[in-house]
Amino acid sequence: MDKVVIITGASRGIGAATAKLLAARGYAVGVNYRTHVRQADEVVAQIVATGGQAVALQADVSIEADVMRLFDEAERALGPVTHLVNNAGVLFTQSRLVDIDLERFNRVLQVNLISCFLGCREAARRLPSGGAIVNLSSVAARLGAPFEYIDYAASKGAIESLTKGLATELAGQGIRVNAVSPGLIYTDIHADGGEPGRVDRVGPTLPMKRGGQPEEVASAIAWLLSEEASYVTGSIIDVAGGR
To answer: Residues 91-143: pLDDT tens digits?
Structure first.
C-alpha cells in the first residue's frame, strides 16, 4: 500500500516536524495549512529537497466543506489517502474560566475539536484497511490547565473520548485510531497564549527537568501510524517528560 498522509496544521511546530519525519519514512505528505502559506511551502520544499513527496494544501479544517476539499485535493495530488494526523489546534491568552467569554470558548472547540471530528469522519469514509489515524491531545486534558487554558484542556479531553470511541467503531475495518498527548513542547503555541518562555519556566519542574522538542512528539506519531503499532488502537500515549 502506498502511504499517503494528511497532516492538519502542518506548517509549523509538531505538524511540520511530523511532516518531515513521515516523508523521510516513505509517506507522500499533504501539508495542510490555514493561513501560513510561506511556512507550509518551506516544509514542502525541505521534503522535496531530500527526495520526498509533499504538497501544500490550504484548508480551514474547522469548516466541513474545506475538509472534504482537503481530502479530494490530497487524493488528486498524491493518491488515495491512507493515514491522517489531526494536529491543528489553537489556544488563547492565559485566563481563568470566569474571564473566558463564549466566543473564545466556541472558537477553541471549533478549531480543536470540530476539526478533529471532521477529519476523523472523512477518514473513516475513505481510509482503506491498514490505514491509521492519530489525533493530537494534550496532558492538559487530564490536568485541566487551571488559571491558564481550561477551554483548551476541555477540547483535548473531548478529543481523547472521540479517539476511544472511533477506535472501537473502526477496528473491524482494519483502521486504527490513537492519540498522542504532548506536554510542554517548544512550539510557537505558547506565544499565542501570551507566555513565549513558558516551557523554559515550567520545564525544570518536570521529572525529566526539561521541555520537549517537536521531533520527539513526531516520533511517537510516526510509530502509532506504522505497522510496528499494528496491535495498538484506542490508546493515548503521553509524550510529556514524566508529567
So the answer is: 999 999 999 999 999 999 999 999 999 999 999 999 999 999 999 999 999 99
State the Cα–Cα distance between residues 234 and 161, nearest whole angstrom: 9
Q: 16, 22 in Cβ contact below 8 A?
A: no
**Inter-axis angle of helices 150-171 and 115-126, nearest 10:** 10
Q: What's the whole-model pTM score?
A: 0.95
Q: Choosing from 27, 149, 152, 186, which is the catalytic residue?
A: 152
Is there a catalytic annotation at residue 231? no
| Sheet containing 4-7, strands listed edge to edge, beginning at the edge strand earlier in sequence | 53-58, 28-33, 4-7, 83-86, 132-136, 176-182, 236-239
Query: Domains of the chain (ranges plus CATH)?
Result: 4-239 (3.40.50.720)
* Burial (Cβ within 10 Å: 0-12, 13-18, ≥19) of residue 107: middle
Can you tell me the distance from the alpha carbon of 98 to that of 83, in angstroms, rounded to the nearest whole number?
Answer: 39
pLDDT one-digit tens code per residue, 44-101: 999 999 999 999 999 999 999 999 999 999 999 999 999 999 999 999 999 999 999 9
Residue with cell 477553541: 108
